[in-house]
Amino acid sequence: MDALHPEVAGEFGPLTKYVGYALRRAQLKVFQDFIDTLGELDLRPAHFSVLTVIDANPGILQSRACAALGIQKANFVPLLDGLQRRGLLRRVALNGRANGLHLTDEGRKLLARARRLHDRHERRVLGVMSALERKRLIATLSRIAGLDEVSPRAAPAAARRSPSGSAAAPRRGSAAKRSP
Amino acid sequence: MDALHPEVAGEFGPLTKYVGYALRRAQLKVFQDFIDTLGELDLRPAHFSVLTVIDANPGILQSRACAALGIQKANFVPLLDGLQRRGLLRRVALNGRANGLHLTDEGRKLLARARRLHDRHERRVLGVMSALERKRLIATLSRIAGLDEVSPRAAPAAARRSPSGSAAAPRRGSAAKRSP
DNA sequence: CGGCTTCATTATGGGATATAACCATGAAGC
DNA sequence: GCTTCATGGTTATATCCCATAATGAAGCCG
């Protein structure tokens, strides 16, 4: 990969000064390393984050979990399907329509292994970055992402970007149990 | 500053301490704002970066440009097609197989407008971040992305990730002119 | 000339994500 | 008790981004 040395710097032009561009390149690099590292467990970044959230909040609702992760509920379903099929988590019916999410023992075990790999991954990716620098980086990124905003406790959950919002049209679907 | 508020922090678990996760969320946020902001020009991030590189390197080869940007040449083609169709750039045949890329006047004009919008976008996304903080952020991200590595002048171009690499299969294709 | 390499292209598939439509259940109102 | 509405989950579909494989043709070099 080319990059910023004087000679090559010209190729990028002002691009090297744009935060967005640096962000994209860094993100691609980090994700690639993540995938390579956790590949042996067949865990992609999204899987890892889902397991982490469920582990930290046993019994959490699907809707709440995917809202926290910023994943559309529609996309969350096949994700959970996959993890459930692998025996890593269970959907426990709460009342006929809501599911509480729980890790299985196997899920917890895999997550533990994943965390160890993840540590190695972070160390490799961050290279010789001081703890302070790392902390500052996370703080800055979280601020940019708006992750440090005040509690969305009673927040409208899906207040992302739909001014009108409502759609109340009834349809057909089903909170149907997947694993009867 | 561990980002999150106490209440919500629980939902994320250790996720708030992972650089990769913060990176992803920040990147999504920034790109969304970019798209919203430059939407009126119908420019996506990739388009903008391509125009920027060509503007800074008139006549640059396709292969060189896409290598610099970390884009696969195969994916680069339709990207250029689109921009060319819009009259923003021209492919100038150098010798029958290689194309030099140039912005048209219209391309330069659009890029200028885009830059103004981009400035607004960055200011909005970075909020009240000091110039120093911004600079440090870019430096850190560039280091993570490996963008600060030493010049790959004569580097093998496609040295990304194929240990075996070779495939010496014969081909058939065509640098065929698109705009004869 | 003949083989290898380079440049550009086409075709194709996977992964992630957004949206819309939809069923069911539970909660609220009359 | 029945209607109305919001909630939780699911399906289906389209799009975007990116990666790989294979191809065509031109240039390079002995």
Characterise the protein shown here.
2 copies of one chain form a homodimer. The first copy, chain A, has helices spanning 6-12, 19-38, 45-56, 62-69, 73-85, 105-126, 131-145; strands spanning 60-61, 89-93, 99-103. Chain A has one domain (6-145): Winged helix-like DNA-binding domain superfamily/Winged helix DNA-binding domain (Arc Repressor Mutant, subunit A, Orthogonal Bundle). In chain A, strands 1-3-2 form a 3-stranded antiparallel sheet. Chain A has 180 residues and is mainly α. The longest helix of chain A is centred in the middle third of the chain and has 22 residues, at 105-126. Chains A and B meet through helix 1, helix 2, helix 3, helix 4 and helix 6 of A and helix 1, helix 2, helix 3, helix 4 and helix 6 of B. The structure holds a DNA duplex (30 and 30 nucleotides).
Itemize the secondary structure elements and their pairings.
The structure is a homodimer of 180-residue chains.
Chain A: H1 6-12, H2 19-38, H3 45-56, E1 60-61, H4 62-69, H5 73-85, E2 89-93, E3 99-103, H6 105-126, H7 131-145
Antiparallel strand pairs in A: 1-3, 2-3
The structure holds a DNA duplex (30 and 30 nucleotides).
Placed side by side, the strands forming the largest sheet of chain A appear as 1-3-2
> Which protein chains make the most extensive interface, counting residues with beta carbons within 8 Å of the other chain's beta carbons?
A-B, 71 and 72 residues
- Number of beta-strand segments of chain A: 3
Uncertain segments of chain A of ≥5 residues (pLDDT<50)? 1-8, 151-180
Cα distance spanning the termini of chain A: 51 Å
Q: What is the name of the CATH class of chain A? A: Mainly Alpha
Oligomeric state, counting identical vs distinct chains: homodimer
Structural class of chain A: mainly alpha
Order of helices and strands of chain A: HHHEHHEEHH
Which fold name is given in CATH as the topology of chain A? Arc Repressor Mutant, subunit A
How much helicity do the residues of chain A have?
40-55%
